[in-house]
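Posting for a labmate who doesn't have an account.
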Amino acid sequence: MRASEAPVRRQVLGLDGLRGLAALYVVLFHCWLYAFPGYPDSSAPRVLDVLMFGRIAVVFFLVLSGFSLAISPARHGWRSGGVAQFLRRRAWRILPPYWAALALSLAISLFVVPASHYGPPDGSSLLVYGLVLQDVFFAPTPNGAFWSIGVEAELYLLFPLVLLVRRRFSAAAAVACVTLPVVVRGLLAPGSNPVEGDNWLAPHLAPVFVAGVVGAGIVVASERVRRLPWGWFAVLAALPVLALGFVQGSVWTVRHYFWIDLAIAPAMTMLIAAVATGQPAFLVRLLTTRPLQRLGDFSYSLYLIHLPIVLVVIRRVAPHFVAPGLHTFCFTLLLGLPVSVLTAWLFSQIFELPFKRNRSWKSLMAQSRPSTTVPEEQNQPPVPEATPSRGKSPSAPVT
């Protein structure tokens, strides 16, 4: 077999581990958020301030989602294989576990503990969240983590257009088309810092998604480009943002997420590119360990269902056993965190992984039926596929 005919690796090593760590951080953020009142000026001990940046973890999910989705198009001249096919595959991958998590969240929010200060969900919640329109229309949320799923759904509609601009023009043109309008909007806002509400966040977050899309080009670039120290580039790009946040404080950082999101996206893109090109080696080894690989396998499920579990522990269980504040936080880590992970794994076995392993109802039903004969295909040597796995990004957490 000639080098040009060699099979392309189906999955880029390390990306699932990154998803798993990001999802785990979001769980820790919500344990912190609801155990201590007053966000962003939280009553938590200052040493726990490192847990208050859940929004940054979701931004990382969006960058990683754009990067992962663009790997296959980058290998094929920045062509997606058809808009309709892309959207169908995204819907097949994202919606079944999302709808199952929506049903679970509605039940818990209606009968156990409300998911937000707006009160329990109502009929508009079912309509808006069922159609994944929560970034466009407001309704009382059944699950506070679902906001990013609406954002990501809108960004999927943008994805084919970004590929077209990247293919016809350049990476710089693709980034500029979505970033310049966002920057102009920010500069024209009162105080040059737009106030963000509960929805209409997709236009603001489109540049971070596109940063991931164009960053995927590094995976298929020349060997000289691939061997560049992308990990160190990521550190250098992140240092000014981290230094500004340290000087201004965590509360200022949270209140200026509009700009922080845009500023940190290049560093995130280069970090993902570093892992995708196998560097630094110790980090890739860590991310490909079995526990992180397994965590990454069901990271979307963990993102979808952890928050109702955390809220039940903090607001219904913990008050019977421990005092508010730090004791509740520690209690939630000991009970809510492992229960969230275990429940997410079980949830993924039913509602997520079957849709990752099968790409149609016919295939799904065939797999679920017991077979007494060995299919003829199993007697043949496996044929490697040329497209990368389509895991979440939650979204998606969506992600």
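Reply:
Got it, the structure tokens are right above this. The radius of gyration is 21 Å.
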